[in-house]
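Weekly puzzle thread! Below is a chain. First person to post its structure in C-alpha cell form gets bragging rights.
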Amino acid sequence: MEVIELTKALILCQSVTPKNDGVLDLLEKELSNIGFDCRRYLFSDSNTPDVDNLFAKIGSGAPHICFGGHTDVVPVGDIDAWSFDPFNATEKDGKVYGRGASDMKSAIAAFVCAVKEYIENNELKGTVSLLITNDEEGPAINGTKKVLEEIYKDGEKIDSCIVGEPTCPNKLGEMVKIGRRGSFTAKINITGKQGHVAYPQWTLNPIDSLTQILNSIISLKLDEGTEDFPPSNIEIVKIKSSDGASNVVPQSAEGIFNIRYNVKHSKESLIKIIDTIINEQVKNTDYVSNVDYNNSAEPFLTKKGNFTEIIKTSSDEITGLSAELTTTGGTSDARFFKDYCEVAEFGLIGETAHQIDEHVKLQDIKNLKDIYLLVLYKYFN
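Winning reply:
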C-alpha cells in the first residue's frame, strides 16, 4: 500500500486500548511483504489487560535504527459529535479524518512506506526495525518497555530510535523533541474526625489540613528551567472527601497532583520536599496523613549530535522550515527507549490528537514519509 492507503487501512481498525482489532496483523502482512522478519509479543501482568506487540526487523548489524510507535488509540468520546464515522477514515478537503489519524497511525504508515522505498532503491548496510505496541495510550505496562527487555535478551542492539508521536504544534517540521520532563504523581489522604458541622469542637475537618498542604505545594517554585527544559510545574488534578451529607464534616479528604519535572529534580528529591510540607502541617495535631507516590517517567535528554542533526536537516529540507529541538509536552514511549539508545521524537501536528474530528492533512502524511526516507539516506550514508 502507498502511504495514504495504508494510513486509512490502519484507521479502519478499531484498536482502542488495549483492543487490537487486526491492526498488528495488517502491519505484519505489509512488513512481511517488504522482507521484514516479524515477531509478536503478547504480554500479561496483574490487574492489566493482555497486550499484543510487534517487533519487525530487516537487515543485520550496525548501525541499527528503530522506528517506535503505537497502534492503540483513545476512545472516540461522544460519537454523535463527530462529523464522520471515527473509524471510516474519511477524506475531505485534503484531510483524512479518524481516530488515530494524528496520534499516530499516519506516522506508522509513513515509517513503513519510507523503509519500503529505501530498500527498493538501496542496499541496506545495517538494520532497520519497527517496534509497535498496542499499549501506549493505556497503562504502558505490557508494551514497549517489555518488548525492549525481551529483544535485548535475544541479543538485539538498537543504536538510534525515532518515535513518531505528533510533535508539531501548527506546521509539520516545526519541532523535533529530544527529551521529556519526568512525570511524578502524589495522592495525599488526610484523616480527621467526622461529625456535625454545627459542633466543630467535636470534629476535625480533614479538608482544612489538606487545603493548607495543597496550597503550600502549588506555591512552590521548583526551578527556573534549564537551557533545554522548561520550568517544572505542579498541577492539582483531583480533590475529594469521603461520602457524607452537606451537614457532616467528612472523615477523610484526598488530593492528587502531578509534577512535570526537569533534570534539576529526581523522584527522591520531590518526595523529600512533599514529605516535609505534609509533616510540618500535621505535626502536633490529631490528623493522620498517608501519601502514595508514583513516578511514571524520569526526565531525559538526548545529546545534540549527528542523529538529532539528521532528523532536523531532513525535516528542514522537505518542509522549508527550521525545526526547533525541544523537550516540551507530556510523556511518550521515548522514556523507555532512552535506556537503550539515543532517541528523538518527530511526527505530525498534534493539535487534534484525542479530539473529536481528529484529522491530518494528506500532504503532511506524504511529506512525513519523505522526511523519514531522507533520514534513512542520511543515517546509512
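Puzzle host: Confirmed. Bonus trivia for everyone else. Residues 182-297 form a domain with the Alpha-Beta Plaits fold (CATH 3.30.70.360).
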